[in-house]
Design a protein that fits this description.
By secondary structure, this protein is of the alpha/beta class. Helices cover about 35% and strands about 15% of the residues. The protein has one domain.
Length: about 270
Amino acid sequence: MISIYKKVTDLILSKLHAGEIPWRKSWISLAPKNFLSKNTYQGINFLLLSLSDNPSQYFITFKQCKDKGGHILKGSTGSPVLFWKMIESKQTGEDFPLVRYSTVFNLVQTSLFEEQPEEAGELQTAQELFKSLSHVPEVKHNVSRAFYSPALDYISLPVLSQFDTEAEYYSALFHEIIHSTGHSAKLARFKPVEFNDDDSYSFEELVAELGSAFLCSMCGIDNTIENSAAYIQGWSRKLKSDDKLILRASTKAKNAVNYLLNNSATKAEAA
């Protein structure tokens, strides 16, 4: 039986093999939400439900649809969403994920869908989002490359005029801000020395990519990249070698975003 981890990883790999980067796209569409709670999906569920361009931003389970008096349209194929909790092992003392998954359907795949534009709240600008974030270190505009210094806890970024677009500037800024949440005095994802270790840095890069994608979606900016063949090949290799990588990284990214938004950085992924 195929594992949940492999099922999710295969979905991501299928997009990479098609030349698409799931976490690098133009986030002009509305973020995926549950139809009943109106809560935005987070972590891996945000990523999975963003893989396809759906007519509606809302998703619903079979039971939720039935309880609302509707039905799933014949021939519809749902999308997986996951729920997990980190459980401490009594033998080792280490945390491990207890995972289950269910299936949701886009609202257009149900009898509840009404053919009218879905109203969205006005998106905040990238600058407004940046100013609203908590726990952001000093940002210095004094070099020609973007990086986060874990030893000194600051972000260095080229000035806005050195970027082709404002969207590129904020995409880079959000990426480095996600890195900054891993500082030992914050969410403690890494120690400064680990930031230069290849394996640790690769994992941390994926966390930053996923976290910045969520922030980009909140203000509807484009974080696509050009000449992405090598980038795609690199992540394809890493995901193939570790089918739990995308789930672990998306959980850390979700916690980083919640930390910046002053939400609770919990260890549970809501479906």
